[in-house]
Structures are given as structure tokens and as C-alpha cells.
Amino acid sequence: MLLPCQISVDTDSCRVTYRGEIVDLYPKQYQLLLLFLKNPKYILSYDFIIDRLWDMDHIPTYSSIRTHIKGIRKAFKKVKYSEDIIENVYGMGYRLNPAINNTSQEHNSPIPSVSSFQNLLSVKGIEYLVIDDQFIIQYLSPNLIYYCDYPQHLQVGVYVGNPFPELIGLKEVFYEMRKKEDKTFTIKGIARACRPKRPEYINLYVITDEDQDIGDSGKQMVLVFFEDASEQMIYSNCQGC
């Protein structure tokens, strides 16, 4: 199997090479890589991966799968493949790096870009921010300011509790989430002060991601999504009248 980017897979010998150099993979890592190569257009969830590669008597934890994926990335980095060959898609799963197929005639279907996902979130009334394990804001979406009590404090590099006091208690929730396989937390129907362009109610979704680190610091990322729930909450309240 010859791929773009000078990656080659010999399925008879179960050997992967990059620019002629052997990529040293464990058997399960090889199987996992092959699964992504056979499904280059799709985002693969943990459950999909488990169903395809493990039997019911030896079901791995999600953490174990993340470890295998990290191992594949490290193996390719050793042979100087600069990109992460397998990408994380927050809250959804993993996909083969689109760059693998950019020059491929066999796999020419477009893969949605990050900006496409951002536009979709915006249309759905969802804004978000990314914080590290010290709860310092690393990234925020452009219109998040309309969801914020203290917009003057909303910027990258500040403690998330400054612009969002309601998230100060997030630390305890986050530490509890890290102990479990369930990496999501949801609060719905949070009432907000009435201000122009600001939702009266929001839903809050928190997702931890042990796989995606910020740079080389090893800090775990947390994604916090803010959804405009005003319409559904107002309708629900009217139904209860």
C-alpha cells in the first residue's frame, strides 16, 4: 500500500516505512494505523476502534487507546515525520491527518476544515474556550464575549475564573472527571443577566482531553462550550405556566 507523503505499508510483512525508514510499531499500533488508513475520510470513535480491533474478552480502556495513538505518533516523529499522523477531533474521536490524503487521487473527498466546524458552532449559537490544567485560557472563540459577565477580563493567558466566575468551581469537577473514563460534564439552563446580544440562558459543556497537549508542556486541555439555550428555556417556561 503506497501512500502520499512517502509513507508505505507492506501488509504481507506488516511493515510501515517513511522515506525508506522503518517505522517501529507494536502489533496493535500497526493494526490501529491500518484501521485509520482504511478509513481516511472518517472520524473514528473509541467504540468504533474497540469494535474493530479488540474482542469482548479484552476490551481496553479509552486511556489505553490514547496510549497506542501517542505511540504511533512518536514512532513517526522518530523517522522525522513532522505532523501528527493521527489527529484528535475534540469530543468526537480521531481521524487520519488530512495531509496524508491531500495529494491522493484515490481519496479526493474534502474533509471539513477547522473553520467549517467553527462556523457550524456559531450557527448553532455555540461559543467555546480552551483552558489548560491550571485553568488558564489558551484559546477562545470570537463571539464568546457575548456570553461573559466580565468581558474586560476575557483574553488569552488569564485565569478563567476572572471573566467567568461561575467556572471557579470547575477545578473540583475537572479533577473528578480525570479519575473516570467519562470525560464530559454538562450543566443546562443556566440563567444569565439580561444584556444586549447576550443569551438569557446557556448550556455548559465541559470536555477533557488527555491526548491533545498544549505545545510540549504536557498540560492537559479542557474545552468549555457555551450554548445559547434561551429559546428552548423560554419555551419550556411558557409550557409550565
Automatic annotation (TrEMBL):
BP GO terms, sorted: phosphorelay signal transduction system; regulation of DNA-templated transcription
DNA-binding stretch(es), residue numbering of this chain: 1-98
Domain OmpR/PhoB-type: residue ranges: 1-98
UniProt superkingdom: Bacteria
The keyword Flavoprotein is assigned to this record: no
The UniProt record lists the keyword Plastid: no
Swiss-Prot/TrEMBL keywords: DNA-binding
One of the record's GO molecular function terms: DNA binding
PROSITE patterns recorded: OMPR_PHOB
A Pfam family: Trans_reg_C
Protein name per UniProt: OmpR/PhoB-type domain-containing protein
Organism: Planktothrix paucivesiculata PCC 9631
Lineage, broadest ranks: Bacteria, Bacillati, Cyanobacteriota, Cyanophyceae, Oscillatoriophycideae
